[in-house]
What does this fold into?
Amino acid sequence: MSKVACETCCKTGMVMVFGEITTKAVVDYQRIVRETVKKIGFDSGDKGFDYKSCNILVGVEQQSPDIAQGVHVGKENEELGAGDQGLMFGYATTESEELMPLSHHLASQLALQLTKARKENMAGRCGKFRPDGKTQVTLEYEQVGNKLTPKRVHTILISTQHDEDITNDEIRALLKEHVISPVIPSDMIDENTIYHLNPSGRFVIGGPHGDAGLTGRKIIVDTYGGWAGHGGGAFSGKDPTKVDRSACYAARWVAKSIVAAGLAERCLVQLAYAIGVAKPLSIHVDTYGTGTKSDSEILEIVNKNFDLRPYHIIKELNLRTPVYSPTAAYGHFGRKGFAWETPKKLEF
It folds into this structure.
């Protein structure tokens, strides 16, 4: 199996791909990068970035033999070692159908709808939006004991890059009608909901022209919007022997399975690994006092139902299949089509 630890960074007119890749495949880096930039929507110098003319730098070497001998060389499949050390977290909650934090789920859906509105040129004017954009949702919660219930949307924040010839008033109207209304439940919005729509007043310069980009800059957006811990490792650009990625997927799978089984209303799962060692160094479960059993009892259920060695994670979640490209935008969790989002039926 190919081994990949690849990063990207970009600035005006330039994309650099760098890292370590060991593979038998013939990789056309130029084509992949240009097609990706085109798909994002940077297709003109007027937008500050153009897939046709940007400079692409490639600095890729093979995986270090020191890492290879410690992780997989000469080892049986089941003893495949973790590709690095670190902490990995998974989280689930009953506050949304996807068992995701509702504030983060709504923000992710707004980002997806913003792209859809732009690409479909809704109202014949949303095509004036440009690819760069950010969303954020603040909710008010009611806490009774240890139970948290989302009650209303307090604030919606959307910033979208745009063409020169569109006013902020029109942008705000388009965002409310074609981005916010299709996503935010109407019963969660009231007359006191605050809207910050392009609050800077001008966002023509964006994307790599406005801010340099680097793999791993948005690890909280990729996960749970700040509701759970994070070990600091990015997911993108890594093959599944890298537990930064695969063990976070497994931790989400475990947490979601616990909540889906009715064992808790909220659950955080923390895993720890050492490079070259197959078994997790530790497994920790925290149900924030919402569990129907004690956390120690739920931990016993986890140990009974899940083998969290890298080989078994890869096998159970089909992580050798090409499922990764869609995770590059709109989050890695709370979405259909991924094995880690299908709860396991637990025996207890």
Observations:
- The chain has nine helices and twelve strands.
